[in-house]
């Protein structure tokens, strides 16, 4: 009877410890506990067999019950340690990605500042050349450089993000519109703003790449404060089915090692400031909603 129960417990509990290929999972404490469970079950079984003939039925059943109870408790600890290890592993990956994004932010900030200087110099030169160039050509030049004229958001870091993504959308034939009160985000660290909005807009752009209909290659973003909440809403068309796990979309990228952690890092940042993140797919429209308590 006890052996059957051990087998069932293995099937429902221990089997979940098996990790997908490509992930390294080592925990010496779990190994020690596994050895302890096997040793404990073996010793107890031997004791049962020795004392079974002389022991009363009630005492024997109590021993069996205690044996099963101890095994259940130990298996619960194993499951808890396993899940904790996975969460720590994911947190380490997220923190590593955030560190890389911090470096990327510094590079992007310097590039955008240099681009803005060149842009203003070019506008100044065009003003002086307006009388020497044909009006049609001048209008065409103004149209070209207007791509780099990104409306300010009220937050310097968000300006960097929006400049990057606006130029990327222009290259890929995606229309990006936004209405943002960036001053409401001043309570967040610079690198967190860069990572949160960078990942959110990257996800939207990746989704729109798969849409052939030009009229649906659009995305919008709103950041505002209302009713004591600072809300962020990003929406874009989405093609295909969306699978969720723990409230987050499962990545469709074949490289599972690091892809998919962008959304997890977003949730990590949002919860860091006491906010909430929610996602839903409504009539082929992907909706990302983030809410922070007013600071």
TrEMBL record:
Residues 190-293 form the Sensor histidine kinase NatK-like C-terminal domain. InterPro entries: HATPase_C_sf, NatK-like_C. It comes from the Bacteria. SUPFAM superfamilies: ATPase domain of HSP90 chaperone/DNA topoisomerase II/histidine kinase. Gene3D superfamilies: Histidine kinase-like ATPase, C-terminal domain (3.30.565.10). Keywords: Membrane, Transmembrane, Transmembrane helix. The chain crosses the membrane at residues 29-48, 60-82. This is Sensor histidine kinase NatK-like C-terminal domain-containing protein.
């Amino acid at each position: 009877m006890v052996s059957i129960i051990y087998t069932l417990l293995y099937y429902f509990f221990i089997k979940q410890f098996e990790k997908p290929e490509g992930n390294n999972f080592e925990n010496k404490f779990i190994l020690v506990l596994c050895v302890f469970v096997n040793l404990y079950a073996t010793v107890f079984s031997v004791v049962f067999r020795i004392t079974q003939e002389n022991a009363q039925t009630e005492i024997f059943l109590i021993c069996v019950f205690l044996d099963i109870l101890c095994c259940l408790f130990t298996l619960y600890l194993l499951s808890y340690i396993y899940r904790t290890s996975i969460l720590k592993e994911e947190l380490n990956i997220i923190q590593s990605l955030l560190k890389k994004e911090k470096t990327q932010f510094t590079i992007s900030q310097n590039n955008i500042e240099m681009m803005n200087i060149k842009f203003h110099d070019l506008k100044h030169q065009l003003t002086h050349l307006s009388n020497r160039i044909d009006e049609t050509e001048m209008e065409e030049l103004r149209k070209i450089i207007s791509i780099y004229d990104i409306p300010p958001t009220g937050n310097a870091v968000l300006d960097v993000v929006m400049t990057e993504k606006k130029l990327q959308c222009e290259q890929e034939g995606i229309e990006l519109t936004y209405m943002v009160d960036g001053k409401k985000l001043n309570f967040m660290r610079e690198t967190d703003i860069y990572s949160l909005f960078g990942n959110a807009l990257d996800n939207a752009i990746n989704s729109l790449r798969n849409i052939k209909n030009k009229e649906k290659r659009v995305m919008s973003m709103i950041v505002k404060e209302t009713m004591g909440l600072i809300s962020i809403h990003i929406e874009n068309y989405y093609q295909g089915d969306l699978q969720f796990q723990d409230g987050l979309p499962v990545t469709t990228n074949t490289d599972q090692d690091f892809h998919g952690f962008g959304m997890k890092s977003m949730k990590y940042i949002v919860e860091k400031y006491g906010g909430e993140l929610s996602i839903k797919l409504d009539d082929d429209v992907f909706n990302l909603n983030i809410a922070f308590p007013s600071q």
